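Quick one, probably user error.
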């Protein structure tokens, strides 16, 4: 319709901010903008994930491709992601994606020499950069930390061995799911409540109290002085 503008000027108010958590209000817009922000956070926030795996020795029950796939899905700490270059844009290695500016190298060497099954986990991955390591999933609830051995990659029996070299690169979830942030993004509607003051004046104190108690989220209260 002529003369109608759909331009919006959203406002953001931070409600809570922590190192790994943020809660904010988005006002003066609609759900399409909120959903667009949610999708951008998941699909376009850069992270680091294992992108290339070179298997040297693999005598486990899993084939090379299966192990490479499991390695790619291990979440890595990505504080360095913003300063790293995308491998396709790196001029230091001509886009090869194997230099210190656009990649991080991992090594894994494991061999079972006992009759007990050996669990090869993400803690067995040794990184060339201490700032990019597998995310630590140790349980803070007080359980024995010795049992927290990381994410299982493969299990080895006596005589079986796994040796490999892996390259982690910067990417976004839009390119592949392994670069999606290991986080949850959700939104919900914040109700905008308007109270009819004239109608409220006609209610008795008992009716007001009943109305306050009828709210499941307990957002209303009665002033003990004015009884309003």
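Nope, works fine. Designed sequence:
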């Amino acid at each position: 319709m002529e003369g109608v503008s759909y331009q919006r000027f959203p406002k953001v108010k931070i409600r809570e901010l922590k190192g790994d958590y943020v809660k904010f209000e988005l006002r003066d817009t609609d759900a399409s903008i909120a959903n667009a922000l949610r999708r951008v956070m998941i699909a376009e926030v850069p992270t680091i994930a294992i992108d290339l795996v070179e298997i040297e020795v693999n005598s486990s029950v899993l084939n090379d491709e299966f192990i490479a796939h499991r390695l790619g899905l291990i979440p890595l700490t990505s504080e360095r992601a913003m300063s790293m270059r995308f491998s396709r844009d790196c001029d230091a290695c001509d886009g090869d994606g194997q230099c210190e500016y656009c990649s991080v190298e991992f090594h894994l060497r494991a061999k079972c020499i006992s009759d007990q099954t050996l669990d090869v986990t993400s803690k067995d991955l040794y990184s060339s950069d201490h700032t990019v390591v597998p995310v630590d999933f140790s349980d803070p609830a007080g359980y024995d930390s010795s049992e927290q051995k990381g994410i299982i990659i493969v299990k080895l029996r006596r005589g079986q061995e796994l040796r490999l070299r892996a390259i982690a690169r910067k990417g976004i979830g839009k390119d592949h799911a392994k670069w999606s942030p290991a986080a949850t993004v959700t939104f919900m509607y914040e109700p905008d409540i308007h109270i009819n003051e004239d109608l409220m004046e006609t209610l008795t104190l008992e009716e007001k109290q009943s109305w306050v108690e009828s709210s499941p989220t307990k957002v209303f209260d009665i002033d003990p002085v004015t009884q309003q």
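The beta strands are 11-17, 22-27, 47-58, 103-111, 118-121, 126-127, 152-156, 161-171.
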